[in-house]
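Dear Dr. H.,

I hope your travels went smoothly. While you were away I took the liberty of generating a structure for the chain from your last submission, since the lab meeting agenda had it listed for discussion. I wanted you to have the full record in hand beforehand rather than looking at slides cold. The sequence, exactly as received, is reproduced here:
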Amino acid sequence: MTLRPIADTASAILGDHRRYPGCRVLVACTGCGWAKDYNPERVIDRLHALKSGGHRTVLTDVARRVSRRCPRCHGVGWRARFAWPASLDEREIRRLANLYRN
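The corresponding predicted structure, in token form, is as follows:
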């Protein structure tokens, strides 16, 4: 799935995913750019289960917690940010925002 990164979200907290309806957490390798996306709520649940974070966890800390190696270049450096799926257009984003707000 192709994702469009949301600008200036590298220092955001996981709880901010509600500001960006339909977004995903994009974790990308700093070496080669290989990326995988995750549902923000599942990331929060996993951090709660590990007793190591939750809604207030900064995305840079999420990237630091990734311990596996990149499947393409075998590097260990990661970055995380919010991103929208390419199929999500502005109209759908507004619809989801209204749905969450109401």
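Two observations you may find useful: The mean pLDDT is 90. Residues 90-101 form the longest helix (12 residues).

With kind regards,
E. W.
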